[in-house]
Amino acid sequence: MSDWTETYRPTTLSEVRGNDKARGQLKKWADTWDEHRKAVIVHGSPGIGKTSAAHALANDMGWPVMELNASDDRQADVIKRVAGEASKSGTLTGGSGGRRLVILDEADNFHGNADYGGSREVTRVVKEADQPVVLVANEFYDMSKSLRNFCKTIEFRDVSARSIVPVLRDICRREGIEFEEDALRAIADSTSGDLRSAVNDLQAVAEDSEVLTVDDVVTGERDQTEGIFDFLDRLIKEEDAHGALQAAYNVDETPDELLNWVEDNVPKDYSGGELADAYEFLSNADRWLGRVRSTQNYTFWRYATDNIAAGVAASRREPKGGWTRYGPPSYWSKLGRTRGTRDRRDGIAQRIADREGASVGTVRREIMPFLEAMTNLCRNRELTVAMTAAYDLDADEVSFITGSGASTNKVESIVEDATTQREETAVEHSEGAFFAQETDQSTEDSSADTDEGATPEGVTTAETDDNAADTTAKAGTGASSNKSDEADAVETADAEEPAEADAEEPAEADDGQSGLSDFF
Ligand SMILES: Nc1ncnc2c1ncn2[C@@H]1O[C@H](COP(=O)(O)OP(=O)(O)OP(=O)(O)O)[C@@H](O)[C@H]1O
Protein backbone atom coordinates (compact mmCIF):
# COMPACT_ATOMS: atom_id res chain seq x y z
CA MET A 1 0.00 0.00 0.00
CA SER A 2 1.48 3.25 -0.94
CA ASP A 3 1.04 6.18 1.34
CA TRP A 4 -1.13 8.75 -0.44
CA THR A 5 0.49 11.64 1.38
CA GLU A 6 3.71 10.61 -0.32
CA THR A 7 2.18 9.74 -3.67
CA TYR A 8 0.40 13.06 -3.85
CA ARG A 9 3.06 15.26 -2.36
CA PRO A 10 3.17 18.47 -4.40
CA THR A 11 6.17 18.67 -6.68
CA THR A 12 6.00 22.32 -7.60
CA LEU A 13 5.00 25.34 -5.54
CA SER A 14 1.91 25.85 -7.62
CA GLU A 15 0.58 22.49 -6.42
CA VAL A 16 0.88 23.47 -2.77
CA ARG A 17 -2.64 24.46 -1.73
CA GLY A 18 -3.55 27.50 0.30
CA ASN A 19 -0.97 29.85 1.76
CA ASP A 20 -0.67 31.91 -1.41
CA LYS A 21 1.11 34.72 0.36
CA ALA A 22 3.62 32.45 2.07
CA ARG A 23 4.38 30.66 -1.16
CA GLY A 24 4.99 33.98 -2.87
CA GLN A 25 7.35 35.01 -0.08
CA LEU A 26 9.22 31.76 -0.30
CA LYS A 27 9.74 32.10 -4.03
CA LYS A 28 10.86 35.68 -3.63
CA TRP A 29 13.30 34.66 -0.89
CA ALA A 30 14.86 32.13 -3.26
CA ASP A 31 14.93 34.46 -6.25
CA THR A 32 16.71 37.16 -4.27
CA TRP A 33 18.91 34.88 -2.20
CA ASP A 34 22.09 36.10 -3.85
CA GLU A 35 21.34 39.59 -2.62
CA HIS A 36 20.45 38.87 1.03
CA ARG A 37 22.03 35.44 1.60
CA LYS A 38 19.88 34.76 4.62
CA ALA A 39 18.31 31.51 5.76
CA VAL A 40 14.54 31.35 6.10
CA ILE A 41 12.37 29.83 8.82
CA VAL A 42 9.12 28.38 7.55
CA HIS A 43 6.83 27.70 10.49
CA GLY A 44 3.24 26.65 11.19
CA SER A 45 1.08 23.72 12.34
CA PRO A 46 1.76 20.11 11.33
CA GLY A 47 0.56 18.78 8.01
CA ILE A 48 -0.07 22.02 6.15
CA GLY A 49 2.63 21.76 3.51
CA LYS A 50 5.74 23.44 4.92
CA THR A 51 8.17 20.66 4.09
CA SER A 52 6.43 20.02 0.80
CA ALA A 53 6.75 23.69 -0.09
CA ALA A 54 10.49 23.64 0.61
CA HIS A 55 10.99 20.62 -1.64
CA ALA A 56 8.71 22.04 -4.29
CA LEU A 57 10.68 25.27 -4.25
CA ALA A 58 13.94 23.40 -4.76
CA ASN A 59 12.35 21.61 -7.67
CA ASP A 60 11.11 24.85 -9.21
CA MET A 61 14.52 26.45 -8.82
CA GLY A 62 16.37 23.38 -10.14
CA TRP A 63 18.33 23.14 -6.88
CA PRO A 64 19.32 19.74 -5.53
CA VAL A 65 18.19 19.21 -1.93
CA MET A 66 20.20 18.31 1.12
CA GLU A 67 17.83 17.38 3.91
CA LEU A 68 18.46 16.92 7.58
CA ASN A 69 15.87 15.84 10.06
CA ALA A 70 16.18 16.61 13.75
CA SER A 71 14.60 13.42 14.95
CA ASP A 72 16.80 11.18 12.85
CA ASP A 73 20.05 12.31 14.26
CA ARG A 74 20.68 15.34 16.34
CA GLN A 75 24.34 14.97 16.94
CA ALA A 76 26.24 18.15 16.43
CA ASP A 77 29.00 16.59 14.40
CA VAL A 78 26.53 15.07 11.98
CA ILE A 79 24.91 18.39 11.44
CA LYS A 80 28.27 19.93 10.95
CA ARG A 81 29.32 17.28 8.51
CA VAL A 82 26.16 17.08 6.50
CA ALA A 83 24.78 20.57 6.56
CA GLY A 84 28.14 22.25 6.78
CA GLU A 85 29.39 20.44 3.78
CA ALA A 86 26.22 20.91 1.80
CA SER A 87 25.91 24.54 2.60
CA LYS A 88 29.48 25.32 1.77
CA SER A 89 30.28 23.26 -1.26
CA GLY A 90 29.31 24.40 -4.67
CA THR A 91 30.57 21.32 -6.40
CA LEU A 92 27.28 19.77 -7.45
CA THR A 93 26.37 21.88 -10.38
CA GLY A 94 24.06 20.09 -12.82
CA GLY A 95 22.16 23.11 -13.98
CA SER A 96 21.74 24.55 -10.53
CA GLY A 97 24.64 26.91 -10.85
CA GLY A 98 26.19 25.15 -7.88
CA ARG A 99 23.27 26.02 -5.63
CA ARG A 100 21.76 23.51 -3.31
CA LEU A 101 18.88 23.93 -0.94
CA VAL A 102 19.58 22.76 2.58
CA ILE A 103 16.35 21.80 4.35
CA LEU A 104 16.51 21.42 8.11
CA ASP A 105 13.27 19.72 9.05
CA GLU A 106 12.01 19.86 12.64
CA ALA A 107 14.32 22.76 13.29
CA ASP A 108 12.47 23.48 16.53
CA ASN A 109 13.58 20.12 17.84
CA PHE A 110 17.26 20.88 18.03
CA HIS A 111 16.98 22.00 21.61
CA GLY A 112 17.00 20.78 25.18
CA ASN A 113 19.90 19.35 27.09
CA ALA A 114 20.92 16.45 24.95
CA ASP A 115 20.67 18.56 21.87
CA TYR A 116 22.38 21.62 23.15
CA GLY A 117 25.32 21.00 20.90
CA GLY A 118 22.88 20.39 18.08
CA SER A 119 21.07 23.64 18.60
CA ARG A 120 24.25 25.66 18.81
CA GLU A 121 25.66 23.91 15.80
CA VAL A 122 22.53 24.55 13.76
CA THR A 123 22.79 28.23 14.51
CA ARG A 124 26.43 28.27 13.53
CA VAL A 125 25.87 26.31 10.32
CA VAL A 126 22.99 28.57 9.39
CA LYS A 127 25.06 31.68 9.99
CA GLU A 128 28.02 30.46 8.02
CA ALA A 129 26.08 28.78 5.25
CA ASP A 130 27.12 29.62 1.79
CA GLN A 131 23.97 28.11 0.33
CA PRO A 132 20.27 28.76 0.87
CA VAL A 133 18.89 27.09 4.00
CA VAL A 134 15.21 26.53 4.84
CA LEU A 135 14.44 25.69 8.45
CA VAL A 136 11.05 24.02 8.89
CA ALA A 137 9.43 24.24 12.32
CA ASN A 138 6.14 23.87 14.11
CA GLU A 139 6.98 26.09 17.04
CA PHE A 140 8.68 29.32 16.08
CA TYR A 141 9.49 30.22 19.68
CA ASP A 142 11.10 26.88 20.41
CA MET A 143 14.05 27.99 18.36
CA SER A 144 16.77 30.02 19.97
CA LYS A 145 16.53 33.75 19.78
CA SER A 146 19.81 34.13 17.97
CA LEU A 147 18.66 31.69 15.32
CA ARG A 148 15.33 33.46 14.94
CA ASN A 149 16.97 36.85 14.70
CA PHE A 150 19.31 35.71 12.05
CA CYS A 151 16.70 34.31 9.66
CA LYS A 152 13.87 35.58 7.59
CA THR A 153 10.52 34.24 8.72
CA ILE A 154 7.57 32.94 6.76
CA GLU A 155 4.45 31.73 8.50
CA PHE A 156 2.26 29.03 7.00
CA ARG A 157 -1.35 29.03 8.14
CA ASP A 158 -3.74 26.12 8.53
CA VAL A 159 -5.30 25.11 5.25
CA SER A 160 -8.98 25.97 5.07
CA ALA A 161 -11.55 23.26 4.44
CA ARG A 162 -12.32 25.09 1.19
CA SER A 163 -8.75 24.49 0.02
CA ILE A 164 -8.63 20.92 1.32
CA VAL A 165 -11.65 19.69 -0.65
CA PRO A 166 -10.05 20.16 -4.11
CA VAL A 167 -6.98 18.21 -2.99
CA LEU A 168 -9.18 15.30 -1.92
CA ARG A 169 -11.22 15.54 -5.08
CA ASP A 170 -8.12 15.42 -7.20
CA ILE A 171 -6.82 12.34 -5.40
CA CYS A 172 -10.18 10.56 -5.80
CA ARG A 173 -10.11 11.23 -9.51
CA ARG A 174 -6.60 9.97 -9.87
CA GLU A 175 -7.44 6.85 -7.86
CA GLY A 176 -10.63 6.24 -9.83
CA ILE A 177 -12.87 6.61 -6.81
CA GLU A 178 -16.37 8.00 -7.16
CA PHE A 179 -17.39 10.26 -4.36
CA GLU A 180 -20.13 12.34 -2.88
CA GLU A 181 -18.98 15.91 -2.56
CA ASP A 182 -20.35 15.98 0.99
CA ALA A 183 -18.09 13.12 1.98
CA LEU A 184 -15.03 15.14 1.00
CA ARG A 185 -16.43 18.13 2.79
CA ALA A 186 -16.97 16.05 5.95
CA ILE A 187 -13.37 14.86 5.90
CA ALA A 188 -12.07 18.37 5.30
CA ASP A 189 -14.17 19.80 8.12
CA SER A 190 -13.09 17.18 10.63
CA THR A 191 -9.38 17.64 10.15
CA SER A 192 -9.26 21.32 11.07
CA GLY A 193 -6.70 22.69 8.72
CA ASP A 194 -4.36 19.71 8.66
CA LEU A 195 -4.09 18.54 5.09
CA ARG A 196 -1.94 15.53 5.87
CA SER A 197 -4.64 14.21 8.22
CA ALA A 198 -7.28 14.83 5.60
CA VAL A 199 -5.36 12.82 3.01
CA ASN A 200 -4.73 10.03 5.54
CA ASP A 201 -8.41 9.93 6.44
CA LEU A 202 -9.41 9.84 2.81
CA GLN A 203 -7.09 6.93 2.20
CA ALA A 204 -8.37 5.04 5.24
CA VAL A 205 -11.99 5.49 4.16
CA ALA A 206 -11.68 5.18 0.44
CA GLU A 207 -8.94 2.79 -0.42
CA ASP A 208 -11.10 -0.28 -0.62
CA SER A 209 -14.29 1.28 -1.90
CA GLU A 210 -15.28 2.43 -5.32
CA VAL A 211 -17.87 4.88 -4.17
CA LEU A 212 -17.22 7.13 -1.24
CA THR A 213 -20.35 8.26 0.55
CA VAL A 214 -20.86 10.58 3.42
CA ASP A 215 -21.94 7.60 5.53
CA ASP A 216 -18.48 6.14 5.12
CA VAL A 217 -17.02 9.12 6.82
CA VAL A 218 -17.39 8.82 10.53
CA THR A 219 -15.70 11.54 12.44
CA GLY A 220 -14.18 9.30 15.00
CA GLU A 221 -16.14 10.13 18.10
CA ARG A 222 -15.71 7.65 20.88
CA ASP A 223 -19.03 5.90 21.05
CA GLN A 224 -18.12 3.06 23.29
CA THR A 225 -14.97 1.86 24.88
CA GLU A 226 -13.72 -1.26 23.28
CA GLY A 227 -11.62 -3.81 25.09
CA ILE A 228 -8.06 -4.03 23.95
CA PHE A 229 -8.30 -7.74 23.09
CA ASP A 230 -11.31 -7.16 20.88
CA PHE A 231 -9.46 -4.35 19.26
CA LEU A 232 -6.42 -6.52 18.53
CA ASP A 233 -8.65 -9.15 17.04
CA ARG A 234 -10.36 -6.66 14.79
CA LEU A 235 -7.17 -4.89 13.82
CA ILE A 236 -5.10 -7.94 13.08
CA LYS A 237 -7.75 -10.19 11.58
CA GLU A 238 -10.82 -8.40 10.40
CA GLU A 239 -10.94 -4.73 9.68
CA ASP A 240 -9.81 -2.77 6.68
CA ALA A 241 -7.82 0.41 7.21
CA HIS A 242 -10.86 2.55 7.87
CA GLY A 243 -12.51 0.09 10.25
CA ALA A 244 -9.28 -0.32 12.15
CA LEU A 245 -8.93 3.43 12.57
CA GLN A 246 -12.46 3.70 13.89
CA ALA A 247 -11.82 0.82 16.25
CA ALA A 248 -8.66 2.50 17.49
CA TYR A 249 -10.60 5.64 18.38
CA ASN A 250 -12.85 3.53 20.56
CA VAL A 251 -10.11 1.93 22.58
CA ASP A 252 -9.33 3.55 25.84
CA GLU A 253 -5.54 3.50 25.51
CA THR A 254 -3.06 6.18 24.56
CA PRO A 255 -1.26 5.74 21.23
CA ASP A 256 1.90 4.87 23.18
CA GLU A 257 0.13 1.99 24.83
CA LEU A 258 -1.59 0.93 21.65
CA LEU A 259 1.76 0.77 19.92
CA ASN A 260 3.13 -1.53 22.61
CA TRP A 261 0.15 -3.85 22.41
CA VAL A 262 0.14 -4.03 18.65
CA GLU A 263 3.87 -4.36 18.31
CA ASP A 264 3.99 -7.34 20.61
CA ASN A 265 0.97 -9.14 19.23
CA VAL A 266 1.06 -8.60 15.51
CA PRO A 267 3.84 -11.20 14.94
CA LYS A 268 1.52 -13.85 16.31
CA ASP A 269 -0.58 -13.64 13.17
CA TYR A 270 1.44 -11.79 10.57
CA SER A 271 4.54 -13.12 8.92
CA GLY A 272 6.96 -12.40 6.09
CA GLY A 273 6.25 -9.35 3.96
CA GLU A 274 3.06 -8.36 5.75
CA LEU A 275 4.86 -8.36 9.06
CA ALA A 276 7.67 -6.29 7.64
CA ASP A 277 5.13 -3.80 6.28
CA ALA A 278 3.33 -3.68 9.61
CA TYR A 279 6.59 -2.96 11.39
CA GLU A 280 7.31 -0.20 8.94
CA PHE A 281 4.07 1.48 9.98
CA LEU A 282 4.76 0.88 13.65
CA SER A 283 8.13 2.44 13.28
CA ASN A 284 6.53 5.49 11.64
CA ALA A 285 4.14 5.63 14.57
CA ASP A 286 7.05 5.49 16.96
CA ARG A 287 8.60 8.42 15.19
CA TRP A 288 5.46 10.48 15.59
CA LEU A 289 5.28 9.55 19.26
CA GLY A 290 8.88 10.69 19.61
CA ARG A 291 7.85 14.01 18.16
CA VAL A 292 5.00 14.24 20.67
CA ARG A 293 7.47 13.67 23.48
CA SER A 294 9.98 16.18 22.27
CA THR A 295 7.50 18.88 21.28
CA GLN A 296 4.55 18.14 23.59
CA ASN A 297 2.47 18.69 20.50
CA TYR A 298 -0.33 16.17 20.79
CA THR A 299 -1.58 16.78 17.27
CA PHE A 300 0.99 14.18 16.24
CA TRP A 301 -0.90 11.50 18.15
CA ARG A 302 -3.26 11.33 15.26
CA TYR A 303 -0.53 10.35 12.86
CA ALA A 304 0.70 7.71 15.24
CA THR A 305 -2.79 6.23 15.45
CA ASP A 306 -3.14 6.37 11.66
CA ASN A 307 -0.02 4.29 11.32
CA ILE A 308 -0.80 1.86 14.11
CA ALA A 309 -4.36 1.17 13.05
CA ALA A 310 -4.85 1.88 9.36
CA GLY A 311 -1.27 0.96 8.52
CA VAL A 312 -1.22 -2.37 10.28
CA ALA A 313 -4.64 -3.37 8.96
CA ALA A 314 -3.65 -2.44 5.43
CA SER A 315 -0.49 -4.50 5.65
CA ARG A 316 -2.48 -7.72 6.02
CA ARG A 317 -2.11 -9.83 2.88
CA GLU A 318 -3.47 -13.20 3.92
CA PRO A 319 -6.87 -13.68 5.56
CA LYS A 320 -6.60 -14.50 9.24
CA GLY A 321 -8.84 -16.71 11.26
CA GLY A 322 -8.99 -18.82 14.37
CA TRP A 323 -8.24 -17.73 17.86
CA THR A 324 -4.97 -16.20 18.94
CA ARG A 325 -3.72 -15.85 22.43
CA TYR A 326 -2.85 -12.19 22.56
CA GLY A 327 -0.92 -11.04 25.58
CA PRO A 328 -0.09 -7.80 27.29
CA PRO A 329 2.99 -5.89 26.10
CA SER A 330 6.24 -7.48 27.06
CA TYR A 331 8.41 -6.44 29.91
CA TRP A 332 10.23 -3.83 27.88
CA SER A 333 7.21 -2.24 26.42
CA LYS A 334 5.50 -2.15 29.79
CA LEU A 335 8.44 -0.45 31.33
CA GLY A 336 8.00 2.30 28.84
CA ARG A 337 4.59 3.11 30.24
CA THR A 338 5.19 5.27 33.23
CA ARG A 339 6.91 8.57 33.10
CA GLY A 340 9.66 7.67 35.57
CA THR A 341 10.63 4.43 33.90
CA ARG A 342 10.41 6.03 30.52
CA ASP A 343 12.78 8.77 31.59
CA ARG A 344 15.19 6.22 32.97
CA ARG A 345 14.98 4.11 29.87
CA ASP A 346 15.53 7.11 27.65
CA GLY A 347 18.45 8.26 29.78
CA ILE A 348 20.17 4.92 29.38
CA ALA A 349 19.23 4.77 25.72
CA GLN A 350 20.74 8.19 25.11
CA ARG A 351 24.03 7.13 26.62
CA ILE A 352 24.13 3.90 24.65
CA ALA A 353 23.21 5.82 21.52
CA ASP A 354 26.10 8.22 22.01
CA ARG A 355 28.46 5.39 22.57
CA GLU A 356 27.28 3.20 19.70
CA GLY A 357 26.66 5.95 17.20
CA ALA A 358 23.06 4.77 16.81
CA SER A 359 19.83 6.71 17.16
CA VAL A 360 17.96 6.63 20.45
CA GLY A 361 15.05 4.93 18.70
CA THR A 362 17.24 2.13 17.41
CA VAL A 363 18.75 1.66 20.83
CA ARG A 364 15.36 1.46 22.50
CA ARG A 365 13.84 -0.82 19.96
CA GLU A 366 16.74 -3.06 19.08
CA ILE A 367 19.77 -2.77 21.30
CA MET A 368 18.20 -2.57 24.75
CA PRO A 369 16.03 -5.67 24.34
CA PHE A 370 19.14 -7.42 23.13
CA LEU A 371 21.09 -6.33 26.18
CA GLU A 372 18.28 -7.60 28.34
CA ALA A 373 18.27 -10.93 26.56
CA MET A 374 22.02 -11.12 26.71
CA THR A 375 22.34 -10.41 30.39
CA ASN A 376 19.21 -12.24 31.37
CA LEU A 377 19.06 -15.30 29.18
CA CYS A 378 22.80 -15.74 28.90
CA ARG A 379 23.14 -15.27 32.64
CA ASN A 380 26.67 -14.24 32.24
CA ARG A 381 28.02 -12.09 35.02
CA GLU A 382 31.11 -11.03 33.16
CA LEU A 383 29.10 -9.79 30.21
CA THR A 384 26.90 -7.87 32.58
CA VAL A 385 29.95 -6.29 34.20
CA ALA A 386 31.37 -5.44 30.79
CA MET A 387 28.10 -3.85 29.72
CA THR A 388 27.91 -1.90 32.96
CA ALA A 389 31.43 -0.65 32.43
CA ALA A 390 30.93 0.20 28.80
CA TYR A 391 27.87 2.37 29.41
CA ASP A 392 28.86 3.55 32.86
CA LEU A 393 25.61 2.33 34.38
CA ASP A 394 24.64 2.73 38.01
CA ALA A 395 22.96 0.05 40.10
CA ASP A 396 19.42 1.14 39.27
CA GLU A 397 20.22 1.19 35.61
CA VAL A 398 21.73 -2.30 35.75
CA SER A 399 18.62 -3.54 37.51
CA PHE A 400 16.56 -1.86 34.88
CA ILE A 401 18.31 -3.54 31.98
CA THR A 402 18.65 -6.96 33.54
CA GLY A 403 15.15 -6.88 34.96
CA SER A 404 16.41 -8.10 38.29
CA GLY A 405 14.27 -5.79 40.37
CA ALA A 406 15.40 -3.38 43.02
CA SER A 407 19.04 -2.68 43.55
CA THR A 408 20.59 -5.51 45.50
CA ASN A 409 24.03 -6.24 46.85
CA LYS A 410 24.64 -8.37 43.83
CA VAL A 411 23.89 -5.59 41.42
CA GLU A 412 26.04 -3.27 43.43
CA SER A 413 28.95 -5.68 43.30
CA ILE A 414 28.59 -5.71 39.53
CA VAL A 415 28.76 -1.95 39.48
CA GLU A 416 31.89 -2.04 41.64
CA ASP A 417 33.57 -4.53 39.34
CA ALA A 418 32.55 -2.46 36.38
CA THR A 419 34.09 0.63 37.90
CA THR A 420 37.35 -1.22 38.38
CA GLN A 421 37.17 -2.50 34.85
CA ARG A 422 36.48 0.96 33.52
CA GLU A 423 39.49 2.34 35.27
CA GLU A 424 41.68 -0.45 33.99
CA THR A 425 40.58 -0.18 30.41
CA ALA A 426 39.95 3.54 30.23
CA VAL A 427 43.29 4.40 28.75
CA GLU A 428 43.44 1.75 26.09
CA HIS A 429 39.87 1.58 24.91
CA SER A 430 38.15 4.68 26.04
CA GLU A 431 35.78 5.23 23.16
CA GLY A 432 35.22 1.82 21.59
CA ALA A 433 31.62 0.79 21.12
CA PHE A 434 30.69 -2.04 23.42
CA PHE A 435 27.98 -3.50 21.33
CA ALA A 436 30.01 -3.96 18.21
CA GLN A 437 32.80 -5.63 20.09
CA GLU A 438 30.69 -8.12 21.78
CA THR A 439 28.89 -9.95 19.13
CA ASP A 440 30.21 -13.39 18.41
CA GLN A 441 30.97 -14.06 22.00
CA SER A 442 27.49 -13.34 23.19
CA THR A 443 25.82 -15.30 20.44
CA GLU A 444 27.92 -18.33 21.05
CA ASP A 445 27.29 -18.08 24.71
CA SER A 446 23.61 -17.60 24.52
CA SER A 447 22.84 -21.11 25.66
CA ALA A 448 25.37 -21.13 28.43
CA ASP A 449 23.96 -21.54 31.86
CA THR A 450 27.15 -20.95 33.69
CA ASP A 451 29.23 -17.94 34.47
CA GLU A 452 31.79 -18.95 31.98
CA GLY A 453 31.58 -17.47 28.56
CA ALA A 454 32.86 -14.34 26.99
CA THR A 455 35.78 -12.88 28.75
CA PRO A 456 36.13 -9.22 29.49
CA GLU A 457 39.03 -9.18 27.08
CA GLY A 458 36.69 -10.33 24.34
CA VAL A 459 34.52 -7.38 25.07
CA THR A 460 37.18 -4.85 24.37
CA THR A 461 38.15 -6.04 20.91
CA ALA A 462 36.88 -3.49 18.48
CA GLU A 463 34.97 -4.56 15.41
CA THR A 464 32.67 -2.77 13.05
CA ASP A 465 29.22 -1.51 13.83
CA ASP A 466 27.66 -3.83 11.30
CA ASN A 467 28.33 -6.72 13.55
CA ALA A 468 26.12 -5.25 16.16
CA ALA A 469 23.17 -5.32 13.83
CA ASP A 470 24.02 -8.85 12.80
CA THR A 471 24.08 -10.10 16.29
CA THR A 472 20.93 -8.33 17.21
CA ALA A 473 19.19 -10.07 14.38
CA LYS A 474 20.61 -13.42 15.39
CA ALA A 475 19.45 -12.83 18.88
CA GLY A 476 15.96 -12.39 17.61
CA THR A 477 15.29 -8.73 18.14
CA GLY A 478 14.73 -7.86 14.52
CA ALA A 479 17.56 -5.45 13.76
CA SER A 480 18.20 -6.95 10.38
CA SER A 481 17.13 -4.93 7.41
CA ASN A 482 16.35 -8.10 5.51
CA LYS A 483 12.63 -8.47 5.67
CA SER A 484 12.35 -12.23 5.84
CA ASP A 485 15.11 -12.38 8.39
CA GLU A 486 13.20 -9.88 10.36
CA ALA A 487 10.12 -11.99 10.37
CA ASP A 488 12.10 -15.04 11.40
CA ALA A 489 13.86 -13.10 14.03
CA VAL A 490 10.63 -11.95 15.51
CA GLU A 491 9.29 -15.44 15.75
CA THR A 492 12.41 -16.48 17.55
CA ALA A 493 11.98 -13.65 19.98
CA ASP A 494 8.41 -14.61 20.48
CA ALA A 495 9.31 -18.16 21.25
CA GLU A 496 12.00 -17.18 23.68
CA GLU A 497 10.09 -14.48 25.37
CA PRO A 498 8.34 -15.60 28.52
CA ALA A 499 6.47 -12.37 28.38
CA GLU A 500 2.88 -13.47 28.62
CA ALA A 501 3.34 -12.70 32.26
CA ASP A 502 1.23 -10.05 33.85
CA ALA A 503 3.65 -9.59 36.67
CA GLU A 504 5.63 -6.38 36.75
CA GLU A 505 8.76 -8.44 36.42
CA PRO A 506 8.12 -11.23 34.03
CA ALA A 507 11.83 -11.90 33.90
CA GLU A 508 11.38 -13.64 37.18
CA ALA A 509 7.94 -14.91 36.59
CA ASP A 510 7.79 -17.78 34.20
CA ASP A 511 8.54 -21.37 33.33
CA GLY A 512 11.86 -21.79 34.96
CA GLN A 513 13.17 -18.78 33.06
CA SER A 514 14.71 -17.17 36.05
CA GLY A 515 15.94 -13.59 35.98
CA LEU A 516 19.35 -12.31 36.84
CA SER A 517 18.42 -12.06 40.49
CA ASP A 518 18.40 -15.86 40.69
CA PHE A 519 21.60 -16.08 38.89
CA PHE A 520 23.64 -13.50 40.74
N1 LIG B 1 -0.63 22.77 1.26
C1 LIG B 1 -0.62 21.51 0.80
N2 LIG B 1 -0.90 21.26 -0.49
C2 LIG B 1 -0.91 20.01 -0.96
N3 LIG B 1 -0.64 18.91 -0.21
C3 LIG B 1 -0.37 19.11 1.08
C4 LIG B 1 -0.32 20.42 1.64
N4 LIG B 1 -0.05 20.31 2.94
C5 LIG B 1 0.11 19.02 3.20
N5 LIG B 1 -0.10 18.28 2.09
C6 LIG B 1 -0.06 16.83 2.06
O1 LIG B 1 0.35 16.40 3.34
C7 LIG B 1 1.63 15.79 3.28
C8 LIG B 1 2.48 16.31 4.42
O2 LIG B 1 2.79 17.65 4.22
P1 LIG B 1 4.13 18.30 4.72
O3 LIG B 1 5.08 17.26 5.19
O4 LIG B 1 4.59 19.26 3.71
O5 LIG B 1 3.57 19.07 5.95
P2 LIG B 1 4.34 19.95 6.99
O6 LIG B 1 3.56 21.21 7.14
O7 LIG B 1 5.76 20.06 6.64
O8 LIG B 1 4.12 19.09 8.28
P3 LIG B 1 5.11 18.79 9.50
O9 LIG B 1 5.30 20.08 10.21
O10 LIG B 1 4.34 17.79 10.28
O11 LIG B 1 6.35 18.22 8.86
C9 LIG B 1 2.16 16.10 1.92
O12 LIG B 1 2.93 15.05 1.43
C10 LIG B 1 0.92 16.28 1.08
O13 LIG B 1 0.46 15.02 0.65
UniProtKB/TrEMBL annotation:
Give one Pfam family, short name only. Answer: AAA
Keyword Nucleotide-binding attributed: yes
Range of residues in the leader sequence? none
Q: Where is the AAA+ ATPase domain?
A: 36-160
Bias (Low complexity): 469-479
Q: Does the keyword Nucleotide-binding apply?
A: yes
Q: Which SUPFAM superfamilies does the protein's record reference?
A: P-loop containing nucleoside triphosphate hydrolases
**What's the protein here called?**
Replication factor C large subunit
Provide the taxonomic classification: Archaea, Methanobacteriati, Methanobacteriota, Stenosarchaea group, Halobacteria
Corresponding gene? Answer: rfcL
